[in-house]
Amino acid sequence: MAGTIGALSGATIVFGWMKVIEKRRFSHLEFEARAKAKAIEHEAELMLQESEVTLKAKALEQEALFQKRIAEANDRNRELIRQQKELDKEHERIDAAYRTLALKEKRLDALEVQKNAAIADAVEKLQNRAALTQEEAKAYILDKVEEQSRSEIAAIVRRYEKIAKEEAQKKANYILAQATTRYAGEFAGERLINLVTLPSDEHKGRIIGKEGRNIKALEMLLGVDIVIDETPGVILVSSFNLYRRAIATRVIEILVEDGRIHPGRIEEVHEKVEKEFEQKTYEEGESVLIDLGLFPMHEELVKLIGRLKYRASYGQNALAHTLEVARLAKVMAAEMGGDEKLAMRAGLLHDIGKALTQDLGGSHVEIGADLCRRYGEHPTVINAIYAHHGHEEPDSVESAAVCAADTLSAARPGARREVLESFTKRVREIEEIATSKPNVQKAYAINAGREVRVFVNAQKMNDNEAVLLSKEIAKEIKEKVQFPGEIKVNVIRETRAVSISK
């Protein structure tokens, strides 16, 4: 019995202790739960505050945008009110003009009545005094009135013709002023020489070569005059042909940089540079068309546009002149209600024939028109090519704009130089005389036009015929070209035998 009571007492104590422990554990859990709840409540308050700040920022942003829109709307309203006022003024002017016209019509009607009354009175008086019939008197009066009216009408016509001419002149001056103020290009004068910088004067001897073979090969192949003087560190490349001179300059620069200078290497580099320049001219033309937004265009025309960079007219760079004309023509066509794109295209192509005149000879107008006709250009472009030199009358606003723009570009003070052009024309004529002969492959005027080197087909011409050809060319130059001093004609026939050892 006592053991049972002890056991029960022990169990009671254990149960009470466990109850206390459990209560403490639940109190700890309750404390943690309260802490987490408080943290969550704090985080929620922070998020709420952030949301309020974001909403306020957006509200401010919307308010600023709203104010901006209101300001823009107010500006538009003010502009509309201003335009409406101008329209109202214009309507008032039109109404006043209509009222004036109505008054004049009434006066004319009154004058017509007076005229008819006066004619009737005059007919009656003539009939009574001159013993004329009514029909005869009426015919006499009408003849007199018609004669007097004709003189008055002629005076009115002359007056209105004068007014129309004055208005047309004002409009033309306005268009020209708009065009010239919107575009003021720099004039580009081209010289006749290029400078090639050398690393040292030792390279001059290497360019000359043994017994001058390198410099002779360079001048014969490149068609330029290479001047090597005492000026330290430079040589001069001289030619009136800009394209040929640019190729020659690049060839010499590559040879100097490479260090290997001999006739075989010269030919190799020249062939490579010619291909590079063909690609370069195409890229130049492509860049121009991209800038002006005139694609598509035939690739041959694109290449020739790029080649205009190496052509000059009266000292003015042909490509710079062409771009100037294109932009001026666009502005003028826009002012006159024409097609801006078509005017700009016609301006860009109006001198395209100049890219080939140094190679083919002849008129750049005919060459350019044939090219554009062959490659499917618009008839207005072809008409502009003819019209800008007076071969045809302009048949459209765009053609007339090109003609005016061409005159503006060429006539601007300092844009062109007559002395340089007369020299290049004389040298070009010398080359054309030589190349016009049968069996002539190419001809180069060098030494500032004092010497021309003519290369002939050695298989079709012997030495005796070469001598006769030189005399014939010299005689024709003397007859057709005005020049100071004398011109030396060198006819060169070269035979090459090539074998390959394997």
Task: Considering the chains and any ligands shown, give keywords for the structure.
Hypothetical protein af1432, 3-stranded mixed beta sheet, Ribosomal Protein S8, Chain: A, domain 1, 8 strands, mainly alpha, 3-stranded antiparallel beta sheet, 502 residues
How would you portray this structure in words?
This protein is mostly helical. Helix content is 71%, strand content 7%. Among the domains are: 132-182; 193-280, K Homology domain, type 1 (Ribosomal Protein S8, Chain: A, domain 1, 2-Layer Sandwich), CATH 3.30.1370; 281-417, Orthogonal Bundle (Hypothetical protein af1432), CATH 1.10.3210; 420-493, K homology (KH) domain (GMP Synthetase, Chain A, domain 3), CATH 3.30.300.20. The chain has helices spanning 2-129, 134-182, 202-208, 213-222, 242-258, 263-292, 299-307, 318-335, 340-349, 354-360, 364-374, 379-387, 397-411, 418-435, 463-480, and strands at residues 193-197, 225-227, 234-238, 312-313, 316-317, 440-446, 451-456, 488-493. Helix 8 packs antiparallel against helix 9 (340-349) and helix 9 crosses helix 12 (379-387). The chain is flat, with a radius of gyration of 46 Å. The chain starts with a helix and ends in a 9-residue tail after the last strand. Mean pLDDT is 77; it is low at 183-190.
